[in-house]
Amino acid sequence: MTLQESSRKVPQTADDHDAPRAAGRAYSRVVAALLSRSTVLTAAALVLILYFQQVSGGLFLTSTNASLLLRQTAVVAVVAAGMAMLIIMGEIDLSVGSAAFFTGLVVAHFQVQGWGVVPSIGAGVVAGIVLGLVNGLVITRFAVPAFIVTLAGFLLWRGLGLLLAKATPIGPVSNDLIFVTEGRMPIPLVYGLGLAVLAVGARWAIAGRRGAERAGSLVALIVRLTVSVAIAVLVIVIGQTPTGLPNALLWILGVAMVLGGVLGRAKLGRRIFLLGSNAEAAVYAGINAKRTVLIGFLVMGAIYGIAGTMLTARAGVASPDAGNTLELVAIAAAVIGGTSLRGGVGSIRGAILGAFLLATMDNGMSLLGVPTYSQNVVKAIILVLAVALDGYFRRRQLAK
Amino acid sequence: MDNDQPVAGAVPSVDGRATALLVARSLTKVYGSTTVLNDVDLTLHEGQVLAVVGENGAGKSTLVKILSGVVPYGEYAGTVEVDGNPAQFSSPYASDTAGVVMVPQELHVVPHLTIAENMFAAHLPGRHGLYDERAAVREARKALETFGLEVDPRAPAAVLTPSERRLIVLAAALHRSARVLILDEPTAALTEAEAGVLLDRLRSFRKAGVGIIYITHRLDELKRVADDVMVLRNGRLVAGYDSVPRQAELVSAMLGETLRSIEAIAHVAPTKPASGDPALRVRNLSVFVNDKQQRPRVLDVSLDVYPGEIVGLYGLVGAGRTELGRALFGAWPGPVTGECHIGGTQGLPKNTNRALKRGLSLLVEDRKSQGVFHGQSVSSNMTVSMLDDLSRMRLLVDKPRERHRVDEFVQKLGVRPPRTRIAIDALSGGNQQKVLLGRCLIDDLKVLILDEPTLGVDVGARRDIYQLVRKIARELEVGVLLISSDVDEVLTEADRILVMYKCRIRGEFSRGASAHDLMSAATGASMP
């Protein structure tokens, strides 16, 4: 089967190029795969983890700290995924931190009123979608750039929220709501998650084999299968430790699956990439640009609601400074994850990995007692370095 | 290449009339493997208006670019002298400073800056490094008075009409003691009356001893402004006249008649007689720029395209062809009036999506900025306009079906290399164009509008595209509207030819028409 496939491939490439060059291309594709954004990010995270583990004297890789790391990352990862979607489309959202604060307030308010967990979250998500609708409508109907509209939203939503809450924390929320992100994942869910990882991993590996234009895919197959199994085992093992895995992980995965699916498989996702790549051509190709942008902001609105819920659940109250600088961290995560601010390029997976990389550094440096301002210096360097290196590799590839 | 070939009747013989302002000798410019300007000489005297005419792609703009420093010294062969001194312009700024000022077809007048600021944009008067507004206004007023323009230099440029905008740029240039003015299609964006005003003014410039190089497609203007005329064809200077000749003679020179008709006949394919109900029926279509003056780009155009028929729409730059195509496709931002039937359905499409839904697609003129999605795969570039037909549950892209469709199209259109996952940027221009042609082949296609489909496409791909278009028309029973400024293209590929000039259709020709007739209609030469 595999032999047949690879022999079918050869004439296709040998058509216009001679054999040594085709072989060279196969080799460079393996190198490219090794140097792909996700691989580099994962490797960087691993190096960081090992480093922190070493320097902190084994404190970093405890199940308590791993759980903390996941819970810290969750909001940023979810928001970064939405941000990546908007940036790919050629838009941006500076209001997400304030909007998440606002929806978190809504959730806390209904909790205090005695509503159940699900209705409270639902109210938060609806509020988020309304905010997203406002952003999207102003951007599309009045042709105001997203940068400006969401900059206004950045001031407006927090201002409005503080006004309504009289600038005091709203809470406390019920333990059930806190459990939604901070709680330990029940054992059946852990096993379910492990199986899901295996299933997705198998699909991923097979997809790599099917691509007729990918050479060196046997290596990829093995790598992908190994990685999937390792992750599944890790999930199940950690899930059974006393600390276990936090429910926050499920939120990250849920949002990633939905948005990743939209970008990778849905018509909407295709249009998002094309619109971000060339807005003028998109109009000539029959894409309804305004509608696409509006839908994008509605999706982002739902993410406001989810992020707000997670902020409130994590703190146990809706505090006035919740979600501060969240928009900037999310943009940084998306960009580190390979999303181009010029539009048309990026991935959800990258954005989430970017969020993890940033959170790992936060967590590790805090563990080592590095003050916050020094942490910022390091993160700034990483951000610029990531983009600069990416540009360098891309230019080198184009020069070939 | 062969620079030592003498060209008959090349230089307008005006020696001894006045001193030569500008002399260019054997200018040659090569891009890649094509020679776009070949051994062209030119002499311009004080007070002379030298008109340069030729088809699109004849080398006019390259000539102008060299003289105005856009193509810098060193990137072309030949010499340029201003007032007898060798000139080696490294940039438009350098030529400007030396008194050779070019006024491009598309003016860069910034509407919200004042008239004075626009006039002196690159040469703002300063004091101690700061902008001296009073000096600028004073100077601007002087310059404007010289040409009898009664506008306040402190007003924003937005108040000016298009012809006035052109005039303030000219006035500013002359005020900076410009000696040579190069005007590229100065009347293209103007109404008849505005053009008249501009042409009258040019006379007063001439009295001031300025030499003018006047590029135009509008042959009927020449009598009013030009002293001498030079004709370019395929980068060569093919004729020079020291008075304005009959328009028919100019048209012949522009086309190089004898050679061409033989070539044209050799390629002629059988025509298809029009029959049945038209695939596209347009009545009294007018297209306006969205401003108060309702400036028309297309006026009162009526046409029919029948299923299986290829109708050529010939016209030179600025005739209104592209605007017509965009309006029919629902992609024109301004007001459009008139009637339109596509297939059986009536009404003008409100947007591009509706047009596609009704079976009308457009291959855009500007491939780079309006067509290609850079960095995206060949596959997604090709299927973007048919995603609705390639989806499951109206939500997800049906990837196996998409792959199948793309493979089929790539094979049928002959895209090379036949790889669908690579970024489209990796393909040559011609192959990119084939991908975009594939994008137009939506299900249930009824009308296909092609806007300059072979612009910047190499010869091999060009032939492929012609064959494909004919196949699409004949086999799928699609009505094709072929917009082109290439006489050969419409003569060999179209079953029927409409010619546009100044926003209107000025003539209809059958396949056997001569290039001369087309060019006459397209330059206003055959008008009563």
From TrEMBL, chain A:
Principal subcellular localisation of the protein: membrane
UniProt keyword terms in alphabetical order: Cell inner membrane, Cell membrane, Membrane, Sugar transport, Transmembrane, Transmembrane helix, Transport
A Pfam family the protein falls into: BPD_transp_2
Region (Disordered): 1-21
Topology versus the membrane: Multi-pass membrane protein
Annotated transmembrane regions: 30-52, 68-87, 94-112, 118-139, 146-165, 185-206, 218-239, 245-264, 293-313, 376-393
InterPro entries: ABC_transp_permease
Subcellular location: Cell membrane
One Gene Ontology MF term: transmembrane transporter activity
GO (cellular component) term, any one: plasma membrane
Described purpose of this protein according to its UniProt entry: Part of the binding-protein-dependent transport system for D-xylose. Probably responsible for the translocation of the substrate across the membrane.
Name this protein carries in UniProt: Xylose transport system permease protein XylH
TrEMBL record, chain B:
CDD domains: ABC_Carb_Monos_I (cd03216), ABC_Carb_Monos_II (cd03215)
The UniProt record lists the keyword Transmembrane helix: no
Protein keywords: ATP-binding, Cell membrane, Membrane, Nucleotide-binding, Repeat, Sugar transport, Translocase, Transport
GO MF, any single term: ATP binding
Gene3D superfamilies (UniProt xref): P-loop containing nucleotide triphosphate hydrolases
Record's keyword annotation contains Nucleotide-binding: yes
Residue span, ABC transporter domain: 22-259, 280-527
Pfam families in the cross-refs: ABC_tran
Protein name as catalogued: Ribose transport system ATP-binding protein/D-xylose transport system ATP-binding protein/putative multiple sugar transport system ATP-binding protein
